[in-house]
Batch of 4 targets.
Target 1
Amino acid sequence: MKIIATTAIALSLGLGLIGSAPAWAVGGSFACERPPIMEVTENVEGSSALQSIVNQYRERWDAEVVARECEAYAAGEPYEISCLNGRRDWPTILASVPPDYFGRSNKSLASTVDTERRVDSGYKAAIAYCRSVGAIK
């Protein structure tokens, strides 16, 4: 009887927390077990340089989503703080990459890779914002 009562209390407490922003977000994470670059290689045919560039655009897209989810959290609106693998909008990400990058060799994209890597993706700032509002630890 004691086990049943304890279970009932635990379930009722847990159900009471579902949907409340702070309970779900605290300890939440956008980290994934599988590296995001694996998703890039599945969605991008071409040179490793092109995949590296697309990965930069993927990180920029991730930054926008992370910031949006944490803004929703801070506003008490619905949000989802979890791994983005399988949830990315690949047509949008790929459309954001300049079309002339596609079909080019590693050698012809070498300087472009360096240039794209120097562009701030905004991801660190988005994560810092999430921490500042308590959405993630």
Target 2
Amino acid sequence: MRKFLFIFISVLLFGLAAYFAFIYYVPFSEGYRSGELIKFSRKGVLVKTWEGEISQGISGAQIFEFSVQDSEKEVIEKLKEYQGQYVKVTYKERYATFFWLGDTKYYIINVVQEKSPHFRQ
């Protein structure tokens, strides 16, 4: 009985570790989005995470919500600086998320400031 219990717990722990590794290291997709950065904040009760929103249309109906990991210090500083401006972000989409990483499945890995297509001269 002890041997069975040991094997069962070992398989269970290995399965959980494999699940967490898969979710964290294997991206579902990678891509780009652009729009006006309308919100960027650090929120949470027990675990603080960086969350933001980009408006992709004039009406505000198309909102792209994203998260930024704490390890992305340069991205965090750029997003703070570009608040209210038109930006292009590079993101990774994961299959799922963990509460300590962020609220969304979209994680920003790079950001650059761009000119708004609405006010071209």
Target 3
Amino acid sequence: MFGRIIFGLIIAAIGAVVTIKAEWIYRNVGPIPSAEKYLGTEGGSRLAYKLIGILVTVVGFLVVTNLVNNVLTAIVRLFIPSIK
């Protein structure tokens, strides 16, 4: 249990850093062509990096609270209702 909490907090911290440092990541990694195409002309990659960071942070908190299995099961049930 303690290891899961620490692991989840580390994942959440990595997601927060990705969200906060999106500009730095953009300068060092470069643009994401599909993000530039679909999310905007100049800010699409920055927005994509921030969305990725937010998603990673949410997954980290799901790990901390031990809700990952429940959330994934609920998402799968949306597409395949026969799964219990």
Target 4
Amino acid sequence: MHPPVPVDAPPHLSGGLDLSAGLDLSDPVLHAEQDLTEVWRTLRDRDPVHWQPPRDGRPGFWVVTRHEDVAAVYRDAETFRSDRGNVLDTLLAGGDSAGGSMLAVTDGPRHTRLRTALMKSFSPRALDGVVRSVRTATLALLEEALERGVCDFARDVAARIPLRAICDLLDVPEADRDELLALTSAALGSEHADAGPEEAWLARNDILLYFAELAARRRDSPGDDVISALAGFRPGGEPLTDEEIVLNCYSLILGGDETTRLSMIGGVRALLAHPGQWRLLRAGEVSTRSAVEEVLRWTSPALHAGRTAAADVVLRGRAVAAGDVVTVWNVSANHDERVFDRPDRFDLARTPNRHVSFAYGSHFCLGAYLARVEIGTLLDGLRTLVGTMEETGPGSPVYSNFLSGRARLPLSWSRA
């Protein structure tokens, strides 16, 4: 058993909200509808390794909020394991059945084996053709939306760029891509506050079934794509299993689409909310490179990552027991005043920028280079093509305790 808070911590940590009794950080509605900036700040200051008690039949979990501690958990993959799951929903439900087979939920030698199988396909040299395609497609999407004068930026532009890139890498047929977009959108979140877990489970299952069929075809008739590369990979003479191939395709389509899409949407919202930064971007007074990093820090599209303690360990004075669920909150670490000067200021020229939006350590995001290219290409397109833009409606949030952002972003805009 764990005490709910340290003995010297105040019962009400922020804004009258009692985390030990009333604030459930696993609740998707909380993250979608509430601004938790002050909650995260107060936790960082007063209870940086916070114990969220069990509730509604689910186990409790640790909430790690300071940048230094988040990085330490990411870095120590022996003590803080991923193989039982890496998101709250699966960890609180008993673990991830893909553990040991999918890169994101695998540790040790098996993780090295799977990462080696994928790394060659994600090197800058290997991605050269995909990068050219991303740049062409991004400009075309912006031109088309500007021609209309109004758009849902989330669906008409942001949803199309990362999905196209990852589908090109996997050589997903064009006719299947819209359906995959719908499935990936439903797999980790929802536009509806009352959505149950069944919709997400069905979407994830459909994605797995789709890639099982596609992988079987690639084994029989390989091509120049990531699925074929996985099917042909034989470290030490042993091929990857069908399960490993399918689960890692599933991981790539989700990881390569959702978080980058939400960063793009959140980046445009930030530019709208900070017109001075938009003017600097348009005038070429900030580099695309630093702007991309600030968009990633500011949006923190993956709110958290989950781990399981493999042994008893003390983390910033708190006794974490073997088997405990430990969550690190990127959204809090990326606004830690101990690391970032004026972290609540959106600053496209911010350097250095030590955000953890791509995680850290052995599980650093495999697709980080491609995501940076996609976001940078979008910012360059906005810089050169767009004159004015205005949000024409509130949009709708993503209801998720893992993803952060908007599912819709209605805009009116004009050419430069």
